[in-house]
Structure formats: C-alpha cells, structure tokens
Design brief:
alpha/beta, 6 strands, 42% helix, 12% strand, binds guanosine-5'-triphosphate, binds magnesium ion, GTP-bd_ortho_bundle_sf, GTP-binding
C-alpha cells in the first residue's frame, strides 16, 4: 500500500516527543484494541527507551473482549503492563491511576525519603492519529478541554492539561511512521481510521475488509449485505453490495467508490459487531 507521507511533520513530531520526555514521569502509550500491535508505533519504542510506560488499550468496546485479554497477557509477558479502556464511556479509567502509582512507587518513595513532597504525576500521552488520546484526556479531566474528532490529525500541537491534583497530562498530535514493513499493518491502520481517507485507495481497503470478514466472520458479512454465498470475484462482490445499498451511477452502473466508502464506514461503525483484526503476532520487534 503506498501512501504519501510528510517526512517534515514526522521529524517535528519526533523532536517534540523527545524534548518533553525528560519532563514526564511516565508515558501512556495508547493503542487501538482492534489492532493492538499494528497500532504500536515502532518509532515510539525507540524514542521513549527506558522511560516508565503503561499501555492503554483504548476502544475496547469495538474489539473482541477475549482477544483483548490475550493481548493484555502478551504485553505482560513482554514486561509491560497493559490496561483495556473505553475512553468514550469512561470505563477502565480508575485502573490507570492505580497502575501508574504502582509503576512509579519506587520513584515516589525515593522522593519522599529525600523530603520532597508528593506532586502531580506528569504523563505524556502518545499514539497513532485518531486512537482517542484527546478523548481520554477529557475523560480524566472531566471537562472537554482537548479538541476531539472522528478523523486523524485533530490535535495539531502539544498541550499540558491538569487532571485534579494527581495528574498533569500532555496531549500530543498522533504520529505515524514512514513505512509499514508489513502491508497488512497499513491496511489495518487505514481501515480503523488512523490514516486520512483522501490519501487512500478506499476500494483496496474495502476489499481487504471484505476478505477479512469472509475469513473470520462470514455469517456477519452475509447477513449485513443479504448474501446467500460470498462471491469470489471482487467485482461481483462489489456489484452485489453496491446494488443492495443503492450505489448506482447514471446509466445504472455500480459506483464502486461509493460502495467502498459504505463498506469501510460499516466496519468503523461496528456494524459487523466488535472485531479484533490483529489476531496473529505480527513480528514487529
Ligand atoms: N467507541 C469508542 N470511540 C472512542 C473511544 N475513544 C475515543 N473514541 C472516538 O475516537 C475518535 C477520535 O478521538 P480523539 O480523542 O480525537 O483521537 P486522538 O488520538 O486525539 O486523535 P489525533 O488528535 O488526531 O491524533 C472520536 O470520535 C472519539 O469519540 C473509545 O474508547 N471507544
Ligand atoms: Mg487529539
């Protein structure tokens, strides 16, 4: 999958994260529960190094709960604590403070023994575009301070936000990386909304989604688009769905762009039920 990147923006984002790293106690790495591995930025791993970290598996409501449990165990095996949350509804958030204090307990004890009064924990929130960083911050602060939106690239600059006396949170713009080693990663990021639609070939993404559903959730696919059987030919499959959803052009031909748009939107709106796309352990690290 080829995507037009903006290396200048990426370099800037990278520099900004590196600069702020020394100011924070912990990094909250947000990943998307539907793609807990594909949504991890390999660059982040390299930038944050030894800094204490908590993985927050956000949008847990959109993923398969059994798979989310497996991913939590996977991260734990790697020595990183992970917590499943839903920032939209605010579930799982109490765990964040609890796990943060566990991770930082030694540092806090050390500060106490030196007579330094406990202060607010400073946390930097990082993650791919549209993963829910700003939504999480608003939830933790219990106010709509950070701008949010269901498209990538809403947050343009870093911003410190106070959450009570306990935490100071640094909201950051979402960062992607220059090249996806595994093309599946690109498709999954695109499908779940981390990449701007106008630089994508939505027909490719829709076809990727259809084939995934055909493999793992054939009944949900058939039911959604009223199919007895799933056509093997891509054009036939698009024709069926397009006709059914009224995506016709003048002259009665099927509008493939519109059909692709509907399929991708159906996936993003959880019309096939909660789904985890990262099923296998993609070797990224
Ligand atoms: N279903 C569901 N939606 C969520 C959740 N968290 C965030 N969202 C939605 O995801 C979209 C993106 O949220 P933002 O908080 O703007 O994402 P961001 O990571 O700050 O994005 P950028 O600023 O573009 O990097 C919004 O429409 C949120 O309502 C969640 O846990 N579950
Ligand atoms: Mg944001």
């Amino acid at each position: 999958m080829s995507i037009q990147w903006f290396p200048g923006h990426m370099a800037k984002a990278r520099r900004q994260v590196t600069e702020k790293l020394k100011l924070v106690d912990i990094v909250f790495e947000l990943v998307d529960a539907r793609i807990p591995l594909s949504s991890r930025n390999p660059m982040i791993e390299e930038i944050i190094g030894q800094k204490p970290r908590l993985i927050l598996i956000n949008k847990a409501d959109m993923a398969d709960p059994a798979k989310t449990k497996e991913w939590i165990a996977y991260f734990e095996e790697k020595g990183i604590k992970a917590v499943a949350i839903n920032s939209d509804k605010g579930t799982g958030l109490q765990q964040i403070q609890k796990e943060t204090m566990k991770i930082l307990s030694e540092k806090w004890e050390r500060m106490k023994s030196r007579g330094i009064r406990p202060r607010a924990v400073r946390a930097m929130i990082v993650g791919i575009p549209n993963v829910g960083k700003s939504t999480l911050i608003n939830r933790l602060v219990k106010k709509n301070i950070a701008q949010t939106g269901n498209r990538p690239g809403v947050t343009k600059a870093q911003q410190w936000i106070k959450a009570g006396k306990e935490m100071e949170l640094l909201d950051t713009p979402g960062i992607l990386w220059p090249k996806f080693e595994d093309p599946e990663v690109g498709y999954r990021l695109a499908l779940t909304g981390a990449i701007k639609d106008n630089i994508l070939n939505l027909q490719d993404i829709a076809l990727y989604a259809l084939r995934f559903l055909e493999t793992y959730y054939p009944d949900r696919l058939k039911e959604r688009y009223g199919m007895e059987e799933i056509p093997q030919d891509a054009a036939e499959l698009f024709d069926h769905i397009g006709k059914r959803r009224g995506c016709l052009m003048a002259g009665g031909q099927i509008d493939y762009d519109k059909t692709a748009d509907i399929i991708v939107r159906d996936v993003r709106n959880v019309q096939f039920g909660p789904i985890t796309f990262d099923l296998e352990l993609l070797e990224q690290d």
